[in-house]
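Example 9 (inverse folding). The structure is encoded as follows.
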């Protein structure tokens, strides 16, 4: 009788340490989902409530080139919302010109993702903050380097996650896949924020999707954020700030200081 041989267990190195202050990781079901505006609105909420609010974009692609180098416009927006004192190259320590997954963008730029620079940013920002808002990169399975994805980052940082989702047909599947992937990795899912909800009377799919996500995902829909035609530059429009303001983000971030 042949004894089946077990495949060797591959243990991946831990590239980042758990964040030592309360915080939230803002991820999404896809790229271009509106994570930045939701993360910025949450950061602004903490700032208005008197908390020193740190913001981090571990890796940013599709950056713009200025005299001072590559700049992440997402990081600029987050920094403004949080009134963050750190420079942009600390808030977004890894920046790439091409709008690609970090693993691909880094390879095409002739390098690899520098995890140590990300850890240095986390340590520096956490040392000056009461709470840390981390905006993820693309969807949760986006490759960060040759061996790791954004899901690994979520697991390492050990922050409760907020999943930003679209309102339209198909979002139930995308949202539940993201929630299940996070939970399977041992990450606490704080809830879902549905972004760009129709301002007028919503179609049937948009109207019923939030309840379906809550039922099948056993996860709360924290906020339904309306679609807005306002230009988002350096501030969060009131239509977006209002549903964000209705949530106790301090409780979800495990920041137990009284408001």
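The amino acid assigned to each position is listed next.
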């Amino acid at each position: 009788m042949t004894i089946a041989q077990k495949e060797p267990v591959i243990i991946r190195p831990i590239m980042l340490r758990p964040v030592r202050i309360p915080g939230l990781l803002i991820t999404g079901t896809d790229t271009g989902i509106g994570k930045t505006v939701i993360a910025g609105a949450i950061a602004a909420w903490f700032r208005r409530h008197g908390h020193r609010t740190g913001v981090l974009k571990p890796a940013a692609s599709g950056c713009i080139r200025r005299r001072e180098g590559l700049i992440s416009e997402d990081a600029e927006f987050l920094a403004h919302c949080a009134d963050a004192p750190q420079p942009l190259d600390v808030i977004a320590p890894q920046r790439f010109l091409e709008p690609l997954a970090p693993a691909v963008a880094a390879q095409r730029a002739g390098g690899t993702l520098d995890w140590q620079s990300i850890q240095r940013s986390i340590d520096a920002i956490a040392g000056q903050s009461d709470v840390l808002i981390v905006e993820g990169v693309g969807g949760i399975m986006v490759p960060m380097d040759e061996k790791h994805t954004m899901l690994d980052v979520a697991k390492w940082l050990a922050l409760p996650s907020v999943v930003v989702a679209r309102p339209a047909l198909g979002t139930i599947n995308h949202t539940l896949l993201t929630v299940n992937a996070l939970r399977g990795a041992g990450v606490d899912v704080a809830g879902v924020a549905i972004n760009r909800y129709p301002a007028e009377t919503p179609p049937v799919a948009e109207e019923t999707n939030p309840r379906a996500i809550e039922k099948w995902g056993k996860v709360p829909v924290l906020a339904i954020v309306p679609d807005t035609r306002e230009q988002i530059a350096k501030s969060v429009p009131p239509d977006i700030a209002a549903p964000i303001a209705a949530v106790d983000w301090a409780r979800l971030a495990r920041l137990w200081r009284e408001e």
